[in-house]
Hints:
Elements: H1 8-31, H2 38-71, H3 78-84, H4 101-115, E1 118-119, E2 133-137, E3 140-142, E4 157-166, E5 169-178, H5 184-202, H6 210-223, E6 227-228, E7 234-236, E8 243-247, E9 264-267, E10 270-272, E11 278-280, E12 287-289, E13 295-297, E14 300-305, E15 308-311
Antiparallel strand pairs: 1-4, 2-4, 3-12, 4-5, 6-10, 7-8, 7-9, 9-14, 10-13, 11-12, 14-15
Helix pairs in contact: 1-2, 2-4, 5-6
Bound molecules: 2-amino-4-trifluoromethylsulfanyl-butyric acid and cobalt (II) ion (CO) (2 copies).
Amino acid sequence: MKIPFKSAHEIQLQRAAGLVAAEILEDMCQAAKPGVSTWDLDQIARAGIQKHARIVDQEVAQAARAVRDLVANGNYDKAELERLTKTYSQLRALAKPGISNAEIDRAIAETATYHRVVSAFLGYAQPPYPAVVCTSINHVIVHGIPNKREVIKDGDIIGIDFGIYRHGFCADTARTVMVGNVSEEKRRLVEAARESLEKAIELCRVGSRLGDLGHAVQSHAESRGYSVVRQFVGHGTGRQMHEDPQVPNYGKPGTDKRLKPGLVIAVEPMVNAGAPEVEVLDDDWTAVTKDRSMSAHFEHTIAVTEQGPWVLTRPSSTPGNP
Ligand code: MF3
Ligand code: CO
Ligand code: CO
């Protein structure tokens, strides 16, 4: 499969997706307290998606009005039209004489549908993933399914993974939250996983190779006595949540594909306190450590730019400043 490289404009749109994903993930992380169920976290995410879906609808309606106002007198500035429709480019179709109200309404509806914030997880794959967030507690590595009867306890570590599309582009991001008083062992594991992602992010620049990233994650985790999961990997992300290339959390320096400007990848180390082996439970989703040791997961969506890494799912990041 071919890697879909992104233009600077496409990366801007994916950044907008990243900001929404980051905001909603942050809300869930703040809410992850003892007594809260994983289903409650899914509800928070669904509300966040709805709120941002409405914001897109309002922006589209406003841009459509601006276009209609601009072209109303027949003679208008083409550059001004371009500016007004930079994000919602489909609305340029409204700049033609004699267009009917029905056509206008249809163009607005189609544009909003294309750009609207939607879950990247709900209904994904087979069997269809049933929620908008993955909640993975303690020995669950990834893909834990939210459940009303699963309640967060003091001392738990919970991986929260969240993905959306906005403007037709995916943002995929995850974090492991330490709830209340966690043991020193768990704290060290979570810190190592977080740091291993930061080491890989630093390498998301032109000239690096995927093997360099994998090696950075693996060597950091293993130097602390942990193991990295091999059965799941990071991935390119864009118009599809999962695109080429695969981004393993292990590898040899100087091997595998070279990173180029316009590459956008989701890097997501899964670090186990014990052995790397995975077991998938009977729900066909929940992935746990075979030895039931603790596991931590962090993920960011990162664009490779000429200036360096741009962490699209980290609000403070700018191109070259991860
Ligand atoms: N977000 C996960 C990843 O990091 C995939 C989740 S699978 C889903 O790639 F079914 F939950 F969407
Ligand atoms: Co994810
Ligand atoms: Co991912």
